[in-house]
Amino acid sequence: MTTKTWMKGWPLIAAALLFAAWTLPAMAQDEGSDEDLGELISEVGQIYAEGYLAPLVSGFGINQNAGLYHTAAIPLTGLKISFGLKVMASKLDDEDKTFRVTRRVDLSDYLDPGDPGYGDEGLLVAEGPTVFGEVGEDGNEIKGSMTAYWHGLPVYTAEGIPALVASDYVPLVAPEISLGGIAGLRATMRGVPMEFDIGEVGKLKYVGFGLAYSVNNLAPTLPVDVMVGIFSQSLDISSTAEEATFSASAKSYYLGVSKAFSMLTVYGGVAKEESSMDIAYVYDNGTPNNAGDDEDIAFTLDGIQDKRTTLGATLNLGVKINAEMSMGNMTSYAGGLIFGF
Fold it and tell me: What mean pLDDT value characterizes the chain?
């Protein structure tokens, strides 16, 4: 098949990749609660929410820092432009689907005056399915629980919330555009600046910017292409519960190396990265001393991954097709279509 034929067919290929990006994750998951993420979280306090949301924070952060390049080669002369569509997915382990958080608390917040333990400190245990945990069958939701202990005896119990979806992966899709070719630099913008609906999770808005520099610009005799880069991204989730917001950020500082062989380019790299999510919502507090009182809750969760190693390959058929695997605290996968350099 000629390059010209491939270029004529790229819109169909792009549509197929985008379709796969949305349908394959959906096929791998079961729906849980009828409420969206913000509505569910408003039913529990911060201690419970921290454990429940942990895999979402880490998964989105790892995805944002994935698929940042498909080659380390950057044109050194002449302005070049490319367009791409990237699909990312972080693999969830079984331990990411349940949580257990323990915290020392003032039992006065959970008990009535005169109850055993009132005025003392005790241990609060929050546990259950995470946002991506088991959802149950035949409409029977699996919910978590909160239990307060005083000298080892349970003195307070409350029902938690169910999983949002049952899934083995945290998915993300990002179109991107790159400009490069001047002084060995390449600038990239990715994401979707307007909100779009992602089902049970809510509405998502995603934007990122990056800059990479070709080391070959300083050392043109190197036998491989080498680049260094930085990428900064933000991802916001809004809910039908208007008071609930989830704002994620991610940064990656990376070194990439590649080697081209005819139509195939193999590449790899290492990265230092960080991610976090700011969570804010209104908790309808139902504990005895606060029943019916709304409580404004705001806290930040950090993603678990701080470094990664990436291996990948890009096939050049006029339109470029790439796939990669990254290893760190979680394993993640990325692939895409690239039109241009």
Answer: 87
d(CA 18, CA 20): 5
| Coil vs helix vs strand at 269 | strand
The pTM score is 0.85
Q: Dihedrals φ, ψ of 262, to 5°?
A: 55, -115
Q: Which of 51-60, 174-183, 218-227, 278-287 has the lowest mean pLDDT?
A: 278-287
Beta carbons of 338 and 71 less than 8 angstroms apart: no
Two tokens at 211?
Answer: 């800059």
Look up residue 235 and give its two tokens. 């991802």
pLDDT at 154 over 90: yes
CB 207 within 8 A of CB 194: no
Is the pLDDT at 22 greater than 50? The verdict is no
CA distance 327 to 330: 6
SS3 21: helix
d(CA 46, CA 35): 19
Query: Reduced to 3 states, what is the DSSP secondary structure of residue 331?
Result: coil
**In angstroms, what CA-CA distances link 179 with 32, 75, 82, 183, 315?**
42, 10, 7, 12, 20
Convert 175-214 to b/e letters by CB count within 10 Å (16 or more is b).
bbebbbbeebbbebebbeeeeeebebbbbbbbbbebebbb
> Which tens digit of pLDDT belongs to each residue from 120-145?
999 999 999 999 998 877 667 899 99
Q: Rounded to an integer, what distance in angstroms lies between the CA atom of residue 83 and that of residue 74?
A: 15
pLDDT digits (tens, 9 = 90+) for 51-100: 999 999 999 999 999 999 999 999 888 889 999 999 999 999 999 999 99
Question: What's the Cα-to-Cα distance from 261 to each of 184, 213, 316, rounded to whole Å?
Answer: 21, 22, 10
Beta-ladder partners of 123: 104, 149
Distance CA 47, CA 271 (A): 31
